[in-house]
Fold this sequence. Notes:
Layout: E1 5-9, H1 13-22, E2 27-31, E3 43-45, E4 54-56, E5 61-62, H2 68-77, E6 81-84, E7 88-92, E8 97-106, E9 109-114, H3 122-138, H4 151-157, H5 163-178, H6 182-187, H7 190-197, H8 201-204, E10 206-209, H9 212-220, E11 225-227, E12 232-238, E13 241-246, E14 251-254, E15 256-259, H10 263-270, H11 275-282, E16 286-294, E17 310-314, E18 322-326, H12 327-330, E19 341-344, E20 355-364, H13 368-380, E21 388-390, H14 402-415
Parallel strand pairs: 1-2, 1-15, 2-11, 7-17, 15-21
Antiparallel strand pairs: 3-4, 5-10, 6-10, 7-8, 8-9, 12-13, 13-14, 16-19, 16-20, 17-18, 18-19
Helix pairs in contact: 1-14, 2-14, 4-7, 10-11
Amino acid sequence: MIKPTLAVIGSGIAGLSAAWLLKDQYQVTLFERHAAPGMGAYAVDVGNNGNKVEIDIPLRVITAGYYHELFKLYQTLGVEIERTDHAGAFFTHTGGDIFHYKNYHVGQRSFSFLNSPKRLSRTNLMLGMAALKFFYEIKKINLALMNELTFGEFLLEYPYAKPTFVDQVLLPMLSTICTCDYDSIKQYPANIILGYLACGVTDKGVWKATHGVADIVARMTQDYAIKTHSNIAHISHTDDGVNLKLVTGEHYSFDHVVIATQPQHASNMIAEAEPELADHLKQIKFATSEMVVHRDNSIYPRPWQELSPVCYSVDKDQQRPMATVCLNKSMPSVKNCLPVFQTWNPTTVIKPEKTLARVTFERPVMSFETLRHIQKIQASMYKADNRIWFCGSYLGGGIPLLEAGVRSSLYVANKLGVTTPW
């Protein structure tokens, strides 16, 4: 039997998942504008003495309580995972101590405790108690009752959201996770952020793929065609399918197309064929971030050996913290490498001679306005004769992270007749 043809555009986790899920029932071709599948486009070797150790940029870390579908996907693929440590040390931008904790692991569970030269200071104890109370009480909230509140409105109403804890610990942490500024975090629908905070990340710990993204990509790019250096100019309807035109002028015809790019790129591709839908895609806001992998320990307020793996530099006059992960302390696979760090939103100069890689990336940010546009995009896929499909972290519900990307690809695969394999 001849399989129907299907193109997947973009090879982040959503595109790779869609291609992998659909390859048995469709003749799949994956289009990627970079030289290699996109999920693995940004990585750097931080090893030494001839020992290759690749680090993903940004780090892809996950927790079992939130990344349900991704964990099942990894298990189905045979991807090994290892525990990482992302305990935090919070400082003012001038180096003043705010809050410092470490994690202790017992089996599959993780426990946090104060760890600082000032661990018994009044401020550290107060913030520690505020954190414990906040994360304990947050699990009791009925998320269905939060459907109309922004996270900022929730914080103003919630009795356990102490302002000092929120401003100096919670918002810097969420800003780093969502890679956006504090105002954007406050505009998130409350149930999205609360769903993440209540998932058990504080006691189930954080994990990563042992062998990095390269291993995942290798397992997910088998048994279908891949065309790299392929930048799509526009997509149009035909009488019996969909036509793709590359910027180089090449044309390809398929029965179905799955667009798994960032929404602003998807908008440009369908602007002529679906102008109204393209406008909804264009209206989805995103935040731009910079990430630097380096060996410059001068950015730390005190010797990095004394601190928890993740160090937050918080300036009350800025909308984002600077967050630096000491990879040697966070990841077992990097433990024996020369000291190496990954900094998001660098607010101090990182010495060029100490820099290993510098990457700029984009991530959608959620708001009630964004959700209204997303509903229109999702509605376009309800049509019985639909041939243009969309997936990506912005369409999977929740924070636009890896889990949402996988969920969105599962939705498309299910609509195209593929049963979830787990």
